[in-house]
Design goal:
The chain is α+β, with helices and mostly antiparallel strands. The longest helix is centred in the middle third of the chain and has 28 residues. It starts with 5 loop residues before the first helix and ends in a 6-residue tail after the last strand. 38% of the residues are buried.
Length: 337
């Protein structure tokens, strides 16, 4: 157990890196890391302990030799003691015999007591992500000779975790319209489809609005491309400021927005549409204090459509009526007004 099989370690790392290069499922990579460390060291416990970026608590992401209950309940703060020192400084920790360092061993211990232990920092680009914990029931089984090998596996973990987080962030950004900061059309369509499902189950009403900027072409012609984009982004912010957390706004067309007003009856939807229309008109946009107005088309579930597509089509027809009447107004079916 004291010998570190170099060729076998190299082969394992090669396999894991190949997996890392071919998948965004970082859990699979972490599973392989733990499994291969266990094979190489015959350890009692191996755990990948990561910092949750949302809570900054330490959590166990993958493990060997621990119970599921322990791992699910494991939440530790990043302290300034032994583990804190490891996380802040990056200096690895080795306990050759816990009997000689009982206080430190108890602090480092996860679920089960051990006789020897090694912990190495998991980091990338000078950012600490967590640490790799390996322990054994035998004294002297884990020594400083293992640190280089464990450091290599820790680096693989860091790459896998970072790749996964970047992938998730890219997915989130793909849903966002870069010019306005609101949802793109397809994510908004998914939201409305979800609202249809919820409304059917709960027997609720909701509204779909389409807003078109009345004077956008004139703004582009007068103030230019960049200012017109600034106006759209600010207008999106104005719309979002008047919405509840359960509502949503997205970009429908070049100068059009689509809004979802959940769990609201027809009078409330029309009132909100008029309030949004007024908020847009009262605001001044860009450094030039540009004025702008919108035309608004309103559709209600379930009366105006039983699907997202039907509701959007109804709202589009209502928007056309608003534009045909001269713009700068809210159009809804007579029963809603």
């Amino acid at each position: 157990m004291h010998e570190i099989p170099g060729p076998q370690c190299f082969r394992y790392l090669s396999e894991i890196l190949h997996t890392l290069a071919s998948t965004n499922q970082h859990e699979r990579v972490l599973h392989f890391v733990v499994d291969r460390i266990v094979r190489l060291t015959q350890c009692q416990t191996c755990a990948i302990v990561l910092i949750d970026p949302k809570t900054e608590y330490l959590t166990i992401q993958n493990w060997h030799g621990l119970s599921l209950t322990f791992c699910n309940e494991f939440r530790r703060r990043i302290a300034t003691a032994t583990i804190g020192n490891l996380l802040w400084t990056g200096r690895p920790l080795v306990i050759s015999d816990s009997a000689a360092e009982p206080a430190i061993a108890k602090e480092v211990q996860l679920e089960h007591p051990f006789r020897s232990c090694a912990c190495v920092q998991i980091s990338l680009d000078n950012r600490t992500l967590g640490y790799l914990h390996v322990d054994s029931g035998e004294p002297g089984a884990l020594t400083r000779d293992h640190l280089e090998m464990l450091g290599l596996f820790a680096n693989v973990v860091a790459l896998a975790v970072n790749k996964s987080r970047l992938f998730e962030e890219n997915l989130r950004l793909e849903r966002i319209d870069k010019e306005t900061g609101v949802d793109k059309y397809l994510p908004m369509l998914e939201r409305i489809q979800g609202a249809v499902t919820r409304a059917k189950e709960r027997e609720e009403h909701f509204g779909v609005l389409l807003l078109d900027v009345d004077n956008f072409k004139e703004i582009v012609k007068t103030y230019g491309y960049e200012r017109s984009r600034d106006l759209l982004r600010t207008m999106a912010d104005v719309l979002r400021a008047d919405l509840r957390p359960i509502d949503a706004v997205g970009r429908y067309g070049f100068d059009e927005f689509i809004l979802l007003l959940e769990n609201a009856d027809p009078p409330a939807v029309v009132a909100q549409a008029r309030a949004l229309h007024e908020s847009v008109a009262l605001h001044r946009y860009t450094g030039e204090n540009i004025r702008s107005t919108v035309s608004v088309g309103v559709a209600m579930y379930p009366r105006d459509g039983a699907s997202a597509e039907d509701l959007i089509l109804t709202a589009k027809r209502a928007l056309f009526e608003a534009q045909r009447s001269g713009g700068n107004t809210v159009s809804a079916s007579p029963e809603e007004e």
